[in-house]
Amino acid sequence: MSDFIQHIKQLSAFFFASDAKGMKTAYVELAKLIPAPAVDDWSAVEFSFNRLFVGPRALLAPPYASIYLDNDQTRVMSESTIQIRQFYGLLGLVSPWLNKIPDDHIALELDALWQIDTALLNSDSPQLRDMRDYLLAHLQEWTPKFHQRIHAIDDVNPAILHIVDMLHQLLSQETSTTILKSIE
Amino acid sequence: MTRYAFSVNAELCIGCSSCGMACKNQYNLDPGMVWRKLYPLSEEIYPHKDRAFYSLACNHCSQPACLEGCPVGAYTQREDGIVVHNEDVCIGCRNCLRNCPFGAPRYNEEEGHVEKCSMCWQRIDEGLLPACVQACPTNALTLVDLDTDDVSGTVQYPPGFPYRPDVEPSTRFVLPVAPKVVRRDV
Amino acid sequence: MDTRELPLILFTLLTQLAVGLAVFAALRQWATVEGSSVKTRNEWIAILALIGVGVVAAFFHLGKPLGAIRMLANIGTAWLSREILTFAIFGLLAAISLYMVYTKTANGWMLKLTALVGLLAVFTTGMAYAGKAMDAINNLLPLVFFMLTVFTLGPAVATYFVEEKTHALLTSILFPTLLASLVVRFVVPFIWLSGNAVMNATGQNFLTSPLHWLHLAALLAGLFFVRNGKSIPAWLPIVLLIGELLGRIAFFALVVASGANLGGVY
Amino acid sequence: MQEKNSLGNTNIQQTLGSKVSRRDFLKMMAAVGAIAALPGNGLLRKGPGASVMPSTGYEGKDAYQVFHNACPRNCYDTCGILSYVKDGVLKFVEGDPASTFTRGGLCVKGYSYPRSVYSPDRIKYPMKQEGRGSGNWVRISWDEALDTIAKKILELKEQDGSLLGLGMTKYSGNFGITHYGVEGMMSSLGYTTRFVGTPCWPAGIDAQNFDMGNMWCNDPEDMVHSKYIIIWGANPCTNSIHSMKYINEAKRRGAKVVVIDPIFTQTAAKADEYWQIKPGGDGALALGMARHLLDKKLEDKAWLEENAEGYSEFASYLRREITLDWAAEQSGIPVESIKQITEEFAAVKPATIWLGYGLQRHVNGGANVRAIDAFVAMTGNIGKVGGGARYGHLFTWGFNYNALVQSAPEGSVGYTGKTGPMGEFDTGQGGDAASYTDRAFNINKIAQEIMDATEPPVRMLWVANKNVLSQDFDRNKIIEAFKKLDLIVAVDLFFNPTVEQADIVLPTTTLFEDWTVNVSYWHYWMSINEQAIAPMYETKSDIEIASALSAKINSLKAGSCTFPENIDSKEMMVKEFNDGIYSLFGIKSWEDLKDGARKAKLVSSASWSDNKFGTPSTKYEFKSSIAEEYGHTALVKYKEPREAYASYRLLTPHSKYGLHSQFQNLDWMLDYNPEPLAYIHPKLAREKGLVDGDTVRVYNKTGEVQLKVSVNDIVPADTILMYEAWYGQNNPFNVNILVDDESSDMGKYKTGAPGVAIHDQFAEIEKA
User: Fold this and answer.
1) Can the peptide bond before residue D350 be classed as cis, meaning omega within 30 degrees of 0?
2) In a domain? residue D447
3) Which of the ends of chain A has fewer CB neighbours closer than 10 A, N or C?
4) Which chains touch B (3 or more CB pairs under 8 A)?
5) So what's the architecture of A2-183 in CATH?
6) ipTM of this predicted complex?
7) CATH assignment, B4-174
8) What is the pLDDT of residues D21-65, one digit of tens each?
9) For A160, left (φ over 0), alpha (ψ -120 to 50), or beta?
10) For the whole model, what pTM was predicted?
């Protein structure tokens, strides 16, 4: 569990990175937990990262949930984005980039998951568990498509592929264990 | 009594497409989804290609074939004649596509349901015009009440539109007029 | 063609085959003096299986399969609802018939009733597919087409369940049906040509489509090899089945909707 | 579906049973005490006021906050917009019902606005390209971006002793008044190189200034009073859709409408009569019509007597050199038609001509406009309600241009040669009285000017409100010229061909994220543009960029920039208003505009209603000394059209689905207009063996484009028509690959540079 928390925090940090340095820091942290391929050229990672998630060219894999959950895949800030904002609201949380960065940005959603898990460490509230289940299910609904889309793109930097694979694997595992628990 | 209908005046229509885009804008339709659009008249009907149009969406028929054939009752018709489709009830059997002579219902593959023009009944209930009608810069597209408004001088079945008295489409039309043309000889 | 229609192609074809088999199972029972002694168990198993597969297939044409049960909601006006209902009853009766045949308690009336409801179900299908958007088939043609399929595939496939001597009975039905089917299906597209723009376009589509001509070829082959008194070759039902399948694909793929011609001359 | 509404995804129900339903959510809201916000990566503790669950679709007017906005695109109609906002998100837009001109409507472009705001493809952050055109971009902070830019500017100053090495090109991407802050930013840095003039309408502006002393059209709403309307080279059905209702109304009241255009436009289809004129033959036709007025003695002698200068000379010129047969020959319009329409036009008053911008995009465009003006003047329709030679106006543009008017820092060195105005909106006021000025280059010859520039060469280019590589002429030449530049900075919304060639891109706000005020060059309404939503990502308005750059460069070297360091668009907008504007529009304060668009209080809907003209003679001048000064004939005279340089005329007018390179790239627009087409006449199609949908090569000396053809009799057989547009980054289509930078005759006088002969272009066409 606590390992999972660490992963989520660092994954969130990676997707939040605004430059190669930030990507490297998170990557190195994650490498401590799960062995990762060595990276020699970090600016190559950054170029690739920006083509996928940042711009200025049209994004190859926009990092926003609504793009994968809605039929409308060319609009951000949709209803489902606002629902995630409401969800943060229920947790008593709010994005500092309200109405600037869509609330369903992957890094923010992972951060929310991290916040819940950290809170659960010292207080086991059934409601919090329900909300964790919801967030996890929500992530598990779109991140596989996100993962798939990135894999469909030519010459994505291996470091980024490693990260999205890791994200995919962690969330899938966590979801299955959660479902098992919920069945008991 | 009130019987709402669209009136499409092709003489006044300037083919600007504002009506169709106003509709997408009002309901934030998915890309690719179109409830209202312009249908250019073929040269047998109007002598110049792409220069005369019917702006068409749902014709809110008096005997709606969509409603009659819908197995789940997703369609209802209001007192005022507006045919409303309920996406939540719809199960996407597309039988209405097989029945509407005007191709008004559109299938949304992703959502697995059919969608169509609602004549903006919520706006009408608020005393507003449908988004498309409000958007029309020349009053070519108007909302009429067939029970009270004078629609003489309009036709129900113009060329370029199916003759279907069996479903009684409510839309009324005015035909386009072509100008005198002086061409250079080249 | 629109692959979304594939489930319906299967549904209509398989259920019509099922009804055809039911009719002949009942017929044989009725045609013989001592009712239940005739062995029709395998037919009824096949019939149930066909209905099952057909219905399962039908689910796949829905955008929201989970809502299928709601399809009974509009019995009042929607032929589609009525179709679902009658097929449900047909399925039920077929199950009962199988049970009775199995337990040797079958009586002719029950089987005849089942066959009758089956025909009724095909009737509702015929009405349901007379779509108002499709000028070419907004009439009794779907019903005619479907019934012809019933009386083509029924006797043809039934040959697999009966012994040689009963072939005569089947042939006596199959031959005229094939003849009628061939004539109707050959003539209709030409009649469409003389109709309005969308009917004409439909006619054009058919007359230029290999699907249509292969279907006719299958029927012709049938006529050639089905002779009174002669037995039906084992491969023929397969050919006819394929023929009907191609014809059914054509039916779903080639009919033009009037909405496709807005702005054009009708 | 129910679950979809409440949870945004249905599968949860399957995966976790019905654990989390809408109801549970509300329960949770009550149950869950806010967790202490931990030092995570982003999410913070939320303040009070948890909002309710969202729902879909239209929720009724009351569910939204409504803001006033204004469409700032380069368009006649400049529509007031109502923006409906919920949860801080723009949901949909409508027209501002307060304006009788737009009457609550927008256009196909305006209704697509929510798509551009929330397109995932928007430029989000300042970014730096490692290797121009390499596609290798790194995200940088605003601070780093401005630092790089400021240092480059200081370096140029160091190197050249002036800032003339810094060039700026900007045009009509956003006509909001505060966007002149871009020019202001340049002025506040010193004397720079400006790409001046306009690709749009300069020849006509000069022509009307020579004739009447200003470009000043009647209120378009008074066309309802016109008894005869000639729409000459304009296509309002596409480019000013809200004007059509007035023309229709005039028609309903019995007016005759004639459309003169090389193309059978949508507007032509709405006319009583359409003339397919030979492109560039407009002047000849107008002079022929004028000659016929003389022959039939239909001119308004009294008015001419009173109000015209040089008329007799003009009349004798007509008698001496113009015949109807010649006019028919030059224009392609038969003599009989010319006679008939001329007589009909002269027989009624008021009668009016709407001169479009298309007809002056020729090497003889200005001369053609003067000839048409002259015809209207002869019939005595100038200064009449429902009459006039309508072209455009800047009557309502009398703002302070606070953003624009900035003085150069102490001791700035600049250009000492003679320069003219810096574009059509340059009110002449402003700048300090220094002997130095900016260096003015022709905006329409950007490639050539950059290539030829010396002492100093242009080393840095600032691009704002402009997509140079889509909209400027001879695209291939521009790519070459750009190689001479050390630093290109592009400020934009989307990754367009210009951004592709930039070294630094700065993300800018949409109109919904900024404050400004807008007026039109056609109608007389003014609309405020409120900030309706927070700026997405790290976008900044032109004003915010200017003030941030000012702060940065002054921190590096004090006294380098005079632009206010802490000012936002709203403050700047407020400063734009003055008593002149207030009294013209009859408002007490700019705040009044929050109730809706306002119309100027006009003495008369007619321009020049008092017949006091702005010319030296205060009369209507058929003979203009100023025209002569600028190298044109003083007298209104025929000017030869451009020689063809290829087999077919190429016309590249505006599309209804886009405005220059904006809108057509949006997904919704592609639903209605998926791809570019070349329109050719059936006769030409037969000659070339082409049918609808064939792909063709259209090429000439400047380049080649490939696209599909539509065989269509709206074009003559000697003409290829394709609409200008940028279809987004995956479609290289660009008509300006085929348009050279040949100048039109006029424009220097009022806009600082001549226009471009956009419609004097020629090309070949072959099956690809």
Assistant:
1) yes
2) no
3) C
4) A, C, D
5) Orthogonal Bundle (1.10)
6) 0.93
7) 3.30.70.20
8) 444 554 454 444 445 445 555 665 554 433 333 234 788 889 999
9) alpha
10) 0.93
